[in-house]
Specification:
Elements: E1 11-13, H1 15-23, E2 29-32, H2 36-41, E3 48-49, H3 55-58, E4 67-71, H4 76-87, E5 92-96, H5 99-106
Parallel strand pairs: 1-5, 2-3, 2-4, 4-5
Length: 114
């Protein structure tokens, strides 16, 4: 895919921006790529859970035409997954910057962190 190599910058959404889009009725898929044990600590309602290690085999579970916002603990794994999805032709992908830690800090302080 032209223009989406190593130098391509993945779109970033802050938790506050994403929460506002969600509240306004966005139908973006929130893709949580954390491990199952991490979800036991903190999870966001409505998120689709596909652990990063299972993504390649479960790619067909996702709609490449829908916006996908990728979430992990701090933003590093989700950035890698966002790049992976873009390289496979997903139309609109964003990384949730700062991950669940930033969500807990900026949107929902009642959320447990780890």
């Amino acid at each position: 895919m032209t223009g989406r190599g190593q130098g391509h910058v993945v779109r970033e959404l802050t938790p506050t921006e994403f929460a506002a889009q969600r509240a306004a009725g966005s139908d973006a898929v929130l893709l949580d790529v954390r491990e199952p044990w991490e979800l036991k600590v903190a999870r966001l309602a409505g998120a689709v859970h596909v652990p990063m290690a299972q993504l390649a085999e479960r790619l067909a579970d996702l709609d490449p035409q829908r916006e996908v916002v990728v979430l992990c603990r701090s933003g590093a794994r989700s950035l890698a997954v966002a790049r992976f999805l873009e390289a496979r032709g997903f139309r609109s992908v964003a990384n949730l910057s700062g991950g669940i830690l930033a969500w807990a800090r900026d949107v929902d302080p009642s959320l447990a962190t780890y």
